[in-house]
């Protein structure tokens, strides 16, 4: 029997098919099962238009057979089969796809999804097999044909025996090496796992004989004996949950699917089951988790949705389907309209993918907004787990996507004593208030005692407590919310002083210029400036940052890179009406050293109130003791 050469331009192309296109050897089983499913689809479609076929869809199936002794794995189907000419054309010509031709010939039918577009999937078998034999009998023909190749120097075709219509793909696996274990593809567990992972939702049953055990009939009850037997079992689910109507799926089924698919013992907080028909059709089943994975806020976390094409898994984590700020969402998307690359392992970026991703983003946001508006307790639980991710979404890419998350953000309200939205803050603003006030620090309790907060509270103004390191970046990125500007109560003009108040403070500053100069000279480089303030309430002193970086940003930078501190400018503000400041001014007249000690003491207090480190804690403690004598 003469051996025929492959019709591709060069052997190099076949080498690429076998060794370079696919990233994982296990993909071969997905490809062979997908081809079998295509063959069943073709016969099912033929049966719709030809009464002589005489076959029901439920009769169609795929069978996997293992022969461990011979090292042979066989995938069989009772689909449309191939003639000798089709074997020549589809198997002898690399990148010739029979499925693609069939798809082009038939009108679009919602019951037929053919995804074998490139004609290379079959050759994935040579990644694990040293020889592949295909025996096939075409529907309506009497003769079966056998195609055999070792994937290197061509193939042979000869007549064969097969009683029924369909195809057997017989793969003789390569011998195990130290680096590769090919025999694992004959193990029951491995095949089950691969079918579940890649082909669980092929719409025909995938069957395999598996080993089971049962109690021997004559064995005693106190010492039972067991015997092994083989039984055919269906490995795949066939009908995906997301293909069923929402009204036909129970909450328990949604939860069970989530737990099994995403290995989370918690119930999902929300489930979104959606579909779209039209220029781009898809079905999606999305879950908002109750708890964040342990590695969620680390670089090891892998976001993305599982992507299926006509029930066959293409990608385990498709990042392009969900934006980073909604990266906590788990789920699956199934579409037959996506353009896949030649290995069907990756997507080609196209309009369809973009449309699906935008629609999914809208669905997620709508679900979160619904939870926020109608079930605030649940939303608080969600925000405790994933709120920081939404905040990062507002600041990433210089605020390019801030509109997507700004309405979903929560911040602690000093006036309300709880988390509120920015919209709720605006709705409760006092008459005449023009700014959204916030203050940054490590705890709500500490911030509530800051003089600026007390001053604003006395005016009836609320202050948002920013305790997350990203919060200040959020305010700076948003800049405004519904035309109301954000105002950092620690660093910016609160806008509470009248022109008369400002004039009075300026006059006092001139009168006390000697004190201000004395304190600045005493503290030297420890502060950039010393000035009076009318915003301190009953506090004697306060430390504020100059232009540029705030204190909270300084702390963040210090944590991020301890070896390269980024100190912000320090401005010491004094309350001219406070007895301690007045005592320091009096001491300047008769006891300059005591006045210097007062200046150092107030400087230390200002640092502590701002949660900044003391330059010399021991010296500060000794100074307090000295002044107590």
How many separate helices? 19
Helix content: 25-40%
Termini gap: 113 Å
Radius of gyration: 36 Å
Strand order of the largest sheet: 5-4-3-6-2-1-7-8
Tell me the major beta sheet. 8 strands, mixed
Average pLDDT works out at 86
What would you call the shape? elongated
Beta percentage is 15-25%
What's the quaternary structure here? single chain
Number of strands: 22
Question: Would you mind describing this structure in some detail?
Answer:
This protein is an alpha+beta fold and 629 residues long. 36% of the residues lie in helices and 21% in strands. The chain contains 19 helices and 22 strands. The chain has an eight-stranded mixed β-sheet with strand order 5-4-3-6-2-1-7-8, covered by helices on one side. A six-stranded mixed β-sheet has the order 15-14-17-16-19-18. α8 crosses α13 (471-478) and α17 packs antiparallel against α18. The longest helix has 24 residues, at 351-374. It is elongated. It starts with 10 loop residues before the first helix and ends with a helix. Mean pLDDT is 86; it is low at 95-103, 110-119 and 342-347.
């Amino acid at each position: 029997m003469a051996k025929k050469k492959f019709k591709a331009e060069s052997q190099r192309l076949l080498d690429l098919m076998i060794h370079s296109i696919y990233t994982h050897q296990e993909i071969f089983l997905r490809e062979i099962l997908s081809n079998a499913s295509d063959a069943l689809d073709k016969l099912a479609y033929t049966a719709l238009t030809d009464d002589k076929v005489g076959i029901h869809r439920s009769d169609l199936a795929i069978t996997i057979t293992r022969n461990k002794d011979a090292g042979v794995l066989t995938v069989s189907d009772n689909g449309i089969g191939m003639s000798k000419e089709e074997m020549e054309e589809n198997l002898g010509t690399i990148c010739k796809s029979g499925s693609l031709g069939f798809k082009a010939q038939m009108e679009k039918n919602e019951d037929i999804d053919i995804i074998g577009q490139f004609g290379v999937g079959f050759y994935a078998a040579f990644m694990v097999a040293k020889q592949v034999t295909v025996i096939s009998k075409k529907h309506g023909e009497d003769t079966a044909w056998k195609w055999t190749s070792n994937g290197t120097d061509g193939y042979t075709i000869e007549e064969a025996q097969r009683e029924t219509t369909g195809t057997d793909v017989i793969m003789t696996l390569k011998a195990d090496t130290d680096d590769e274990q090919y025999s694992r593809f004959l193990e029951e567990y491995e095949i089950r796992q691969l079918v579940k992972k890649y082909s669980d939702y092929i719409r025909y049953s995938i069957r395999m004989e598996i080993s089971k055990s049962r109690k021997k009939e004559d064995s005693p009850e106190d010492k039972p004996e067991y015997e092994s037997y083989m039984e055919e079992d269906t490995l795949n689910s066939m009908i995906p949950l997301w293909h069923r109507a929402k009204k036909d799926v129970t909450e328990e089924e949604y939860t069970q699917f989530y737990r099994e698919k995403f290995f989370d013992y918690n119930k999902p907080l929300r489930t979104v089951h959606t579909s779209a028909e039209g220029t781009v059709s898809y079905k999606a089943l999305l879950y908002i988790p109750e708890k964040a994975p342990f590695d969620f806020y680390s670089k090891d976390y892998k976001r993305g949705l599982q992507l299926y094409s006509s029930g066959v898994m293409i990608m385990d984590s498709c990042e392009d389907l969900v934006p980073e700020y909604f990266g906590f969402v788990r789920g699956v998307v199934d579409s037959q309209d996506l353009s896949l690359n030649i290995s069907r392992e990756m997507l080609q970026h196209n309009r369809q993918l973009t449309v699906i991703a935008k629609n999914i983003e809208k669905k997620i946001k709508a679900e979160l907004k619904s939870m926020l508006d109608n079930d605030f307790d649940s939303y608080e639980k969600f925000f405790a787990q994933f709120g920081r991710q939404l905040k990062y979404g507002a600041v990433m890419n210089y605020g390019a996507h801030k509109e997507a998350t700004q309405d979903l953000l929560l911040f602690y309200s000093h006036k309300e004593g709880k988390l509120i939205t920015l919209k709720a803050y605006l709705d409760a603003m006092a008459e005449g208030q023009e700014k959204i006030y916030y203050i940054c620090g490590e705890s709500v309790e500490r911030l509530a005692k800051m003089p600026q907060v007390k001053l604003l509270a006395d005016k009836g103004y609320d202050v948002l407590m920013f305790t997350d390191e990203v919060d200040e970046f959020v305010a700076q990125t948003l800049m405004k919310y519904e035309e109301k500007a954000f105002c950092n109560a620690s660093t910016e003009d609160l806008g509470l002083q009248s022109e008369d108040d400002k004039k009075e403070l300026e006059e006092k500053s001139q009168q006390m210029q000697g004190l201000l100069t004395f304190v600045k000279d005493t503290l030297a480089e420890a502060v950039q400036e010393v000035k009076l303030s009318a915003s301190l309430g009953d506090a004697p002193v306060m430390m504020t940052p100059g232009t540029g970086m705030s204190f909270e940003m300084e702390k963040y930078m210090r944590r991020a890179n301890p070896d390269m501190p980024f100190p912000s400018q320090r401005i010491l503000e004094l309350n001219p009406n406070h007895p301690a400041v007045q005592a320091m001014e009096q001491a300047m007249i008769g006891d300059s050293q005591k006045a210097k000690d007062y200046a150092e003491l107030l400087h230390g207090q200002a640092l502590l109130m701002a949660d900044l480190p003391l330059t010399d804690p021991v010296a500060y403690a000794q100074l307090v003791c000295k002044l107590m004598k």
